[in-house]
Design brief:
By secondary structure, this protein is of the alpha/beta class. The chain folds into 3 domains: 209 residues, Rossmann fold (3-Layer(aba) Sandwich), CATH 3.40.50; 165 residues, ANL, N-terminal domain (Rossmann fold), CATH 3.40.50.12780; 129 residues, ANL, C-terminal domain (GMP Synthetase, Chain A, domain 3, 2-Layer Sandwich). It is built from 18 helices and 27 strands. The strands form 6 sheets. An 8-stranded mixed sheet has the order 7-6-5-3-4-8-9-19, with helices on both faces. It has a 5-stranded mixed sheet with strand order 12-13-14-15-16. Strands 2-1-11-10 form a 4-stranded mixed sheet, sandwiched between helices. Helix 2 packs across helix 3.
């Protein structure tokens, strides 16, 4: 019986079938880019694979990558796979302590260092004696360079194979609580999930259409790794563009004019607030309501965002307000929400053209089984399911049911047509002093849907009522020194509090809204590398002021 086709088989086929087709486009500064064809991509990967093999590493050796997204992130991963290794990607914004933990926990035998913004702060996390190689676009280092190695090293030839059960990668979770966990994924399962992802994309973009994608969400995270990198590696008819920097993002987006664009709720919200900074929400709403003119206005807004060619737009990684999805759809962008996890290689639920609704995360993708536990927890069995947690068989026993379903930790409801609605995290539920449980996520979504609010957290463990901490929209913050502007914002937040409280159960009503003094960012430790809020960190930051706020009068307070 023939062996099933695995990830590397697809890649070798693309190398042979269309060697001169451009696969990767990398900005190198000053508006210049470098293109890599399939032949050039594989030539470099084969040369580096030969170098790795010459170092005498054992089969399955863990080889780490610390880099922002770039063409050479993907070429490096191919080299590691061809050489017989297992990839360990580290978020490019991680602290030195976390970098050291991942390198030591995984037993990494070599580190590739690529494009980074905070390398000087990260270097203490590199264990002494660990061999390192500098990728193109890396910060200045004393390490041997990628270009020097491939210039002198003949390429591996033929089609070096991996078995279905070989580990392709360890993906370390972003660690919103506690130490990150290493999720093991085999070639068999990442290939199965990637095939399903490609079919999903083609059903929306068109089976024969050349797909254009901008890669900018961290490739160390499963969402981008599965839907962008591995999907493109299986498909072979996708052109990946990379973003140079935050400052050039719109320029990079307009260069790509993506046909497929995926993002996270925080960035969809930032895009919307950028639009509102140029046109007040009420004026835009009025224009969009006018027949014919509304379509022209919506298309102009999308063109300004670089999204007028997008046939598939998706949001994942965290809950997105239903109102935000509806807003983008009014513009003419068919934004839909999906749902998956590191543990199922981002292959679980997605909205389809036929079955979708704002506020729901989609239906099970082909081959995915889902059910709810007696407590309402979502249980998943996916073709992309992980092999297990690296060095943590104790967690494997906790996380799977006896019949192989994964405990997601998310609470949900399933509609008759299969659409799944998430209603919060099982462990994020908190109890007020009145003995009632509050699910923060749905209330946070109501707050995040308001143009004034960029980020929100709902808490109140053991308090008489819940409260909300909010970060105001970026364009508002500089104006708050003006007393009249501050009073206007305070009034609008009071109205928002009233509206939210009218929409939720009495035991979920908020006592107050507190305005945080600064944005929550990855850099200040309030967000994970995938822009999820670190609840315990934020709550601890403001714990000393809680008693004062609860005894003060008024619906809005300033931290």
């Amino acid at each position: 019986m023939s062996q099933p086709k695995l990830m590397l088989d697809y890649i070798y086929d693309h190398e042979r079938a269309h060697p001169d087709a451009v696969y990767l486009t990398q900005p190198i500064g000053g508006g210049q880019v470098v293109d890599y064809t399939w032949a050039q991509t594989l030539d470099q990967a084969r040369r580096m694979a030969a170098h790795l093999q010459s170092r005498g590493m054992e089969p399955g050796a863990r080889i780490a990558i610390l880099s922002k997204n770039s063409a050479h992130f993907i070429i490096t991963e191919l080299a590691i796979w061809i050489a017989g290794g297992t990839t360990v990607a580290i978020f490019p914004t991680e602290t030195a302590d976390t970098i050291r933990y991942v390198l030591e926990h995984s037993g990494a035998s070599l580190l590739f260092v690529g494009k980074l913004d905070t390398w000087q702060q990260q270097t203490p996390g590199i264990p002494a004696g660990l061999p390192c190689i500098a990728l193109p676009l890396s910060p200045p280092t004393t390490f041997e360079t990628w270009d020097a190695i491939i210039a002198r090293t003949p390429p591996v030839t033929g089609r070096p194979a991996r078995t279905a059960t070989d580990l392709a990668m360890l993906i370390y979770t972003s660690g919103s609580t506690g130490q990150p966990k290493g999720v093991m994924h085999s070639f068999e399962r990442i290939t199965a999930a990637s095939l399903g992802i490609v079919n999903e994309i083609k059903s929306r973009v068109g089976a024969e259409r050349h797909n254009r994608v901008l890669s900018y969400l961290p490739l160390a995270h499963v969402f981008e790794r599965a839907w962008v990198e591995c999907g493109s590696l299986v498909d072979g008819n996708t052109h990946l563009y990379f973003a140079e920097s935050l400052d050039t993002f719109l320029q990079d987006l307009n260069r790509a004019r993506p046909t497929t664009f995926i993002s996270v709720p925080r960035l969809w919200l930032k895009f919307q607030q950028g639009v509102f900074s140029k046109m007040p929400p009420k004026k835009l709403d009025r224009l969009l309501s006018i027949p014919f003119l509304g379509r022209m206005v919506g298309r102009k807004v999308l063109k300004g965002l670089g999204l007028d060619q997008a046939l598939l737009a998706g949001s994942g990684s965290a809950p997105i307000p239903a109102e935000l999805i509806s807003w983008y759809r009014r513009l003419g962008l068919n934004l839909s929400e999906g749902y998956a996890m590191t543990e199922d290689f981002a292959y679980s639920h997605n909205s389809t053209d036929a079955i979708n609704a704002p506020g729901y995360v989609g239906v099970p993708m082909p081959g995915v089984l889902v059910r709810l536990s007696a407590e309402g927890e979502v249980l998943i069995k996916s073709p992309g399911q992980m092999v297990g947690y690296y060095k943590r068989p104790d967690l494997d026993a906790e996380c799977f049911t006896t019949d192989g379903f994964f405990h997601t930790g998310d609470r949900g409801e399933i509609r008759a047509d299969g659409l799944l609605k998430l209603t919060g995290r099982v462990k994020e539920l908190f109890k007020t002093s009145k003995g009632k449980y509050v699910a923060p996520a749905p209330i946070e979504n109501r707050l995040n849907a308001h143009p004034l609010v960029e980020q929100a957290l709902v808490s109140g463990v053991g308090q008489s009522a819940a409260y909300a901490l909010v970060v105001l929209a970026e364009d508002l913050r500089p104006k708050l020194g003006d007393a009249a502007e501050r009073a206007k914002v305070q009034q609008e937040l009071g109205d928002l509090l009233r509206d939210v409280n009218q929409a939720v159960a009495d035991y979920e009503q908020l006592r107050m809204i507190v305005v945080a003094p600064q944005a929550w960012t990855i850099e200040n430790g309030m967000l994970t590398p995938t822009m999820k809020i670190r609840r315990s960190r934020i709550e601890a930051e403001f714990e000393a002021q809680l008693a004062h706020w609860y005894t003060s009068q008024g619906p809005v307070h300033w931290a």
